[in-house]
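In the previous chapter we treated chains in isolation. Here, by contrast, the input contains two separate entities that must be folded as one system, with a combined length of 726 residues.
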Amino acid sequence: MPQNTARRAGRRTTRRFTRRDIVVLGALLGIPVLLDVVIVWGPALASVGLSFTSWDGIGDIHWVGGDNYENLVQDYPAFWPAVRHNLLWIAFLGLVATPFGLLLAVLVDRGIRFSRFYQSVLYMPVVLSLAVVGFMAQLLLGTDQGVVNTIIGNEQDPVDWLGDSSVNLWMMMLAASWRHVGYVMILYLAGLKSVDPELKEAAAIDGANERQTFFRITFPTLRPVNVVVGVITVIEALRAFDIVYAVNKGRNGLELLSVLITDNIIGEASRIGFGSAIAVVLLSVSLGFVVVFLVQELRGARER
Amino acid sequence: MSRRNVLRGTALGAGAVTLPALLTACGDGPGGNKNEVTVGSNASDAVPKEAFAQAFKAYEKESGKRVEVNTTEHNEFQQNITRYLQGSPDNVFMWFAGYRMQYFAEKGLLVEISDVWKGFRGFSKALKDQSTHDGEQYFVPYYYYPWAVFHRKSLFEKQGYEQAGNWDQFIALAKRMHKDGIPVAFCDKDGWPAMGTFDYIDLRLNGYDFHKSLMAGEEAWTDRKVKQVFDLWRELMPYYQKGALGRTWEEAGQGLQRRRTGMAVFGMPHPGSQFPENERDDIDFFPFPEIDPQFGRDAVEAPIDGFLIPKKSRNVEGAKDFMKWLGTAEAEDAYLKGDPNNVAVNEDADTSKYSPLQKKSAALVAEARQISQFLDRDTRPDFAQTVMIKALQDFIDNPKDVDGLCNRIERQKKDIFSASAS
């Protein structure tokens, strides 16, 4: 009985707001909402608006309707490769690098010898920024003076790791994965540590082999971690700007939407309208993934 | 000591440091300090940076004014130039002649300096043209460097190579080099070095006037004349060293220095800064070979760097006084003492201390009937940056599809040049 009244009393106090509560709530909610609008939604909507105009950053802004989008799709040779590379990047990180990180996490979690050592080695690249990874890739893969070509010793017929447009994207995705794998591994390691060992024991008693235990028991209990890793993978893939920019300004086989935006808006070019149109495309691609995740999350929350 | 005291202490300390600075900044009022000229510099490399410092010191000594230099990394300066000019720019800034300058003059971002130009002596008409927009001058040229075919003297002697005068000889020479295992140097990872070769083939094949109007967007890129440029270029491709798209100009310059490659179409500072000092005398060049006798080797690609005053300059008077000095031969001498990779624009400049290479460069430009800048300086920056870099890289990647390439360039050119007209 006393418990009950306490709960009722508690409910009553939360329902009625004093003036001070409202002010505090308003400030606490209002400031983030305002910041969100000013910093996130404002520029995003401005980009959408600008994408229908032509502006060089100095003179007047002209309304050109859908011209920018038409030019983008039909006349801009870098556009479709960039879209393709962006999707390929997501696929590569999602289907190769992330599962590999999971595999390493599982191996390290099983307590193999020197697992601390492996853990720290694999985690090391995570502290580097992608731009630094790009510079390291250049030292390794340079045509004339790169380490790899020096080791292969093919001076007469060097492999152009960074310049050959059929090779360089894969090299860059490998370099980016080098960092991404460590990141994913550390997240999964934390997740694996929190899986209740009793679940595994129960599965073992029921006669499940290791593989079954992993896929039926461990992996599903990792669901919250999976979602986080999924989001991070997509963000990392869409953010893959620094590395290609450090290597060759994201040209010639390394085109990405983010690079095209920079190319058109920043610098002397100042095709702000046109660049905004590309930005809107990138926004739509990202929104696609955000929506998928949100739907997944909400559905999951309802089931729970 | 309590936390509050520490905080109060730091706040007071910070105030003591920043307040005087703020006060002095305010004291000059909106006009800025009349005894100080600020210069926005893109000379971030060690050699030119030091040379400019020496030159500005000479002005400080002569005028009794102070020169305050704000150096920005070269590419970053270029990337931010529009924002820089519209924000709070320095009194004077470094930039380039030709269309690059005209573009900003057209946008009303520059101060016209025809009055300063009236006092100038020693500048040729070609130079004045490069500093002029709409009949008014906006630019003080300072130095230039020609583009040509650079090579090592000693290597040519050892191998018995001879400088090529026309295209056939050029191709024959390239072929021989390739056979000897020392191919022609080529690089375009940075996106611009290949532009020099395109410019020269077009200038030699179609003449300066066509090249200029092509750059201005008045000719169609699908014209047979343009396709011929690419066709000729393709003849040279097999003799280039491999992997051009993964090679920076620095690496290509070092390849030339190590005798791994035989020759390269470059601007003078490119091999110049990659050769150690005691080997610089071994650098030689010949003008880009003749293709059509009608045009001969009349045109020389010689990008000119110099100084301009932004419209938002807060000390136009001081800036103009500084510009007056920058246009003199002594000012150029003061710079070139520290940087042997460029050539003075002023005819009265002291050439006695020039290296043989500088002398040859000066002669090359003096004899030129026309001076072009460089592809990215002769056309709209948005066209050069977003279209031509990729187009030339695509061509290097796949030299066979000239028709498709020219169509793509032409379509984008129309989009860009028409967007500005609307």
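The radius of gyration of chain B is 24 Å. Chain B touches chain A at residues 78-83, 86, 107, 109, 181, 189, 191, 242-247, 251, 254-255, 260, 381-382, 385-386, 389-391, 393-394, 397, 408, 411-412, 415-416, 419-420, 422 (CB under 8 Å). Compare these points with the single-chain example from earlier in the chapter.
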